[in-house]
Design brief:
Layout: E1 5-8, E2 28-33, E3 39-49, E4 52-59, E5 71-73, E6 77-85, H1 91-97, E7 102-108, E8 115-125, E9 129-133, E10 136-139, E11 146-149, E12 161-168, E13 172-182, E14 185-196, E15 201-212, E16 218-227, E17 262-263, E18 266-277, E19 281-303, E20 313-322, E21 336-343, E22 349-357, E23 365-401, E24 409-430, E25 436-442, E26 453-457, E27 462-463, E28 469-475, E29 479-489
Parallel strand pairs: 2-16, 14-21, 19-25
Antiparallel strand pairs: 1-11, 2-3, 3-13, 4-12, 5-13, 6-12, 7-8, 7-11, 8-9, 9-10, 14-15, 15-19, 16-18, 17-18, 19-20, 20-23, 21-22, 23-24, 24-29, 25-28, 26-29, 27-28
Length: 491
């Protein structure tokens, strides 16, 4: 008795009378998953191989396999040819492959439930299925019809399958090790931080968030996660690009070695035991749990060069902590998102902000912006700007001019050196019932001349770089402080 396949085509939905998912043909599977849409799949299957050349099929490989990366080790067996059959069975592809074939169209009378069957030839399948039934042409996109196929078209498979032609010199049962790289995998770290401002402490729990969009489920696999983006050819497209986040002052890379397994220049995070990594699934596993690490809150405001605000601006709220062994989280942190909570007056944790971190060595100092302060404001104002003439002349360029037939001449260009004296004030207000210190930063000081000077400032500042100067401005509870600074610059 021949097998038949039935397809409902009211609007071309799923296969009717679909069979349950078959048991996976995978063997002992190990997954090494990287951050950048890549995984190494190692699958050891027990197989019995006959002598000579045979075609062996490996169903249930990743649908996002990179076939050019496949390696197979079977002992006494060589690979002659390999093919990846990725044309998977779907209602659409089943109809596409059946164009020109004869099928059976079944309709059910909605009033009586009686079925009628007619032979039909599929003429086209493009936005609807066109068939010839007897001497008429119909479009099967309505009336609740379904189509019965006599068999599966050649080359159409229900599961992703790698077929390999092997040449075996020593027949018999043996483990066959299949390994390949696959797209469709990725993972990142997510951190939940509970900050106690009064105690100056932070509790942090780290979660690995693992995604599988490879089109294939891997059951009871050994999973190893590698923190880092391994280099790979991508036709010029930078898959490792990440938009730049706002970096707060106080970030400093660490120099301590974490007590973790490493792979080259990457840290490895194994998942304990075996786990099923299902297709289209997000899985979370805890990898970090630290209580009572030191942490502080700070306020930060950065002003651009000659930037004048008509209204006060909120200062950034910054959470600062360390990953050091002695006074911090004591671990290397893979890139991810840190979500920060604080307890309210009723003792309930409430979300107060989030930010991302890059791969962070142990011993690093971290400063994360979690939001903007409601009660702490800064208003930078450009008070005046005066031109200062130096009364000196500066030779700025000297070059030789050569004209054919004439003696060379030397030209010197001189211009007056002009300075500008800029007076800025920064009015910092605090509506909180406790005093605060606000880190005020003036940027844009470099101006391509490298000689900006600060002749006067009401609070002693620190030159953090050629482009930035910073002041720690103390503000009393329910009060305000005005910082006044003069800058001498070429622009």
């Amino acid at each position: 008795m021949r097998k038949v396949l039935a397809l409902a085509v009211a609007t071309l939905p799923a296969l009717a009378n679909a069979q349950s998912t078959p048991t996976s043909a995978q063997g002992d599977v190990s997954l090494t998953i990287y951050n950048n849409d890549l995984a190494l799949v190692q699958d050891v299957r027990q197989m019995t191989l006959p002598n000579g050349r045979t075609r062996q099929e490996f169903p249930d490989v990743s649908a996002a396999i990179r076939p050019e990366t496949v390696t197979l080790n079977a002992g006494g067996t060589g690979i002659v040819e390999q093919n990846f059959d990725y044309d998977l069975l779907t209602p659409q592809k089943l109809m596409d492959k059946a164009v020109g074939q004869t099928v059976t169209v079944v309709r059910t009378n909605p009033a009586t439930g009686a079925e009628t069957r007619e032979s039909a030839t599929i003429l086209a399948n493009n936005g609807g299925t066109v068939v010839r039934i007897g001497d008429r042409i119909e479009v099967l996109n309505q009336y609740g019809a379904r189509v019965i196929f006599p068999s599966l078209p050649a080359g159409l498979r229900a599961r992703p399958t790698l077929s390999v032609t092997l040449d075996t010199t020593t027949p018999g049962a043996r483990p066959v090790s299949l390994s390949y790289l696959s797209r469709g995998f990725g993972w990142k770290a997510d951190y939940v931080a509970l900050f106690d401002e009064a105690a100056g402490k932070i509790d942090v729990q780290g979660w690995i968030t693992l995604n599988n969009n490879s089109g294939t489920t891997f059951g009871q696999a050994k999973v190893l996660l590698v923190a880092g983006a391994v280099g790979q050819e991508n036709n010029g497209y930078n898959q490792n690009y990440r938009p730049q986040r706002q970096v707060m002052p106080g970030n400093r890379p660490g120099t301590q070695t974490a007590n973790r397994e490493s792979l080259g220049d990457f840290y490895v995070y194994p998942i304990a035991g075996r786990t099923t990594v299902a297709n289209a699934q997000q899985k979370q596993v805890s990898f970090l749990d630290v209580a009572g690490a030191p942490a502080t809150k700070a306020y930060h405001f950065r002003n651009g060069w000659l930037q004048n605000q008509t209204e006060p601006q909120s200062a950034d709220t910054v959470l600062r902590f360390s990953t050091s062994r002695e006074a911090g989280l004591g671990d290397a942190l893979p890139a991810g998102t840190v979500r920060v909570y604080m307890r309210d007056a009723r003792g309930q944790p409430q979300f107060i902000g989030e930010n991302t971190i890059d791969h962070t060595p142990m011993g690093s100092a971290l400063a994360l912006k979690t939001g903007e302060a409601f009660d702490v404001k800064v208003q930078p104002m450009l008070e005046k700007r005066d031109r200062i003439d130096s009364g000196e002349w500066e030779r700025t360029a000297r070059y030789r001019v050569t004209t054919p037939g004439k003696a060379a001449t030397e030209v010197t260009v001189e211009s007056e050196k002009v300075f500008w004296r800029t007076t800025m004030t920064y009015k910092v207000t605090n509506a909180k019932a406790t005093p605060v210190t606000v880190e005020v930063v003036q940027g844009g000081l470099d101006n391509s001349w490298h000689d900006t000077r600060v002749p006067s400032e009401s609070i002693k500042g620190e030159q953090r770089s050629a482009d930035e100067r910073v002041w720690q401005v103390p503000v009393p509870a329910n009060g305000e402080t005005t910082l006044t600074v003069q800058f001498d610059s070429r622009y």
